[in-house]
Write a structure and sequence with these properties.
The protein is globular. It is built from 9 helices and 8 strands. Helix 6 links the parallel strand 6 and strand 7. The chain is of the alpha/beta class and 256 residues long.
Length: 256
């Protein structure tokens, strides 16, 4: 398994990070991909990558909920780091209108700019979308061409959102613990997506799957999500693992 989206560099893991990584290894997680949030999270993230070389991989990006009045300065910081070294993706980027719509215009600008950088660098984008599918699709339609690829992280849309998301040929759907929540009905929506467009993720420390719902999520719990996904597709967990791992390796160009 590859956990394609995990924030294990956050303070929630400061007391037991090594144990969390060991549990992940024992559960069969062979890689953990870490999206950035903003200027404050870069160094903690890179420090974790350094602690676990060839196991934890960093992305670079500005999260939509961190887009405020200083967004230009924050964007400059992202651009600086992109010039310093290689990252496996630009993320986590996107639009979030759940808490606050104040900065919607700026979020759209920041999203488009980072998508353009991804095209220039030939790396995928990791899209955060919450209460904002229409806005994200509008902005994607402006910048998307055959150079842009990526993943709709923590996908939890309806059938119409799914259909539209799959129209972007280079894009995958990132599925996490939400698929195990009965009230989310994501399992029904997911039946409309081919397995070769799906990847596994946790979004740790958030969105722990049943039976851990409400607790701190961690990469080892991805096994529960994978089992539910296998049930949805009517295949074995091993086969689901093989497909989703292959998808992640291809999208993020991880070949070892």
């Amino acid at each position: 398994m590859i956990d394609t989206h995990s924030h294990i560099y956050l303070p929630e893991f400061d007391q037991d990070r090594h144990e969390v990584v060991e549990k992940a290894r024992l559960a069969g997680v062979e890689k953990i991909l870490m999206p950035n949030i903003d200027g404050q999270s870069v160094r903690p993230m890179l420090a974790v990558e350094e602690m676990y070389p060839d196991y934890c991989y960093s992305m670079m990006g500005l999260h939509p909920t961190s887009v405020k009045g200083d967004y230009e300065e924050q964007l400059s910081n992202v651009q600086y780091w992109l010039g310093q070294r290689d990252f496996i993706a630009i993320g986590e980027i996107g639009i979030d209108l759940y808490w606050d719509k104040t900065w919607e215009r700026e979020q759209r600008v920041v999203f488009r700019k980072q998508a353009e950088w991804a095209k220039e660098k030939g790396i995928p984008i990791v899209i955060h979308v919450r209460e904002a599918f229409e806005a994200v699709f509008q902005e994607l339609d402006k910048v998307c061409d055959d150079r842009l690829k990526g993943v709709f992280h923590s996908f939890s849309g309806n059938k119409e959102h799914l259909h539209k998301a799959l129209e972007y040929p280079g894009f995958m759907l990132g599925i996490n613990g939400i698929v195990t929540f009965k009230n989310a009905k994501l399992d029904e929506v997911l039946k409309g997506a081919p397995a070769d467009r799906i990847m596994t993720e946790t979004d740790a420390p958030y969105l722990a799957p049943v039976p851990y719902r409400g607790k701190r999520n961690q990469p080892a719990y991805m096994k529960n999500t994978l089992e539910k996904m296998a049930e949805v597709y009517g295949i074995t967990p091993d086969e689901m693992d093989r497909i989703t791992t292959r998808n992640a390796r291809q999208l993020f160009a991880i070949d070892h």
